[in-house]
Amino acid sequence: MKKIHNAARLRARATLALVTAMTALLPIAACASSGKRYTVPDSLCGIKVPRSALEAVLPNGDELTEHPESSGSTKRCRIHVDGDSALSVSTEHWESETTASDVAQSALGVDPQDQQSDDGRYIYSSTGAVGKVDCAQADEANESLWASVRVTHDDAKDADMLKLITAYAGAVGSSHVCSR
């Protein structure tokens, strides 16, 4: 009788261990099945941006495509995920005395009343942001260069948009766009 009791106890322990292991793996499987199945790029239409800044604002999906556009002094890069617009970034020349509030008035996804960085260079929300680019070429032409970012989904956070606009504006400033 003692052998039967020990066998039942061993089966119960094995079952408990299996259930515990399966429960521990469930969140991992859920993340893998609903996450980003595309490769997060390290640039936006040729402008190097840290993947971590992009990953935080991009939605889940299977396929990511880039769509560069230019119109006059405005350069735009649209990112689509599974064929739907997900992120748009752009640069645009303004008069030299332009402020972040001025740019935010005409930018989609951001409002002049949204949060502002301590130095006044950036205005941002969970849907968009604008930021001044340090650009010697623009300064020499008595202009200022501004970057904007906008998402078309509800998954981004204010802090993530500030991180993205800061990274993007910095990357534009050290790219071919501002080189002499």
What does this molecule look like?
This protein has helices spanning 2-34, 51-55, 100-106, 136-140, 158-173; strands at residues 43-44, 47-48, 64-71, 74-81, 84-95, 115-116, 122-124, 128-133, 143-151. Helix content is 37%, strand content 29%. It contains five helices and nine strands. It is globular, with a radius of gyration of 24 Å. It has 180 residues and is an alpha+beta fold.
Structural class: alpha+beta
Largest sheet: 7 strands, antiparallel
Task: Give the low-confidence spans.
Answer: 14-33
**C-alpha Rg (nearest Å):** 24 Å
Straight-line N-to-C gap: 89 Å
Order of SSEs: HEEHEEEHEEEHEH
* Relative strand content: 25-35%
Helix content: 25-40%
Shape: globular
Mean pLDDT: 83
Number of helices: 5
Order of strands, widest sheet: 3-4-5-9-8-7-6
Give the total of beta strands: 9
Task: Provide the fold topology.
Layout: H1 2-34, E1 43-44, E2 47-48, H2 51-55, E3 64-71, E4 74-81, E5 84-95, H3 100-106, E6 115-116, E7 122-124, E8 128-133, H4 136-140, E9 143-151, H5 158-173
Summarize the structure.
This protein has about 180 residues and is of the alpha+beta class. The chain is about 35% helix and about 30% strand.
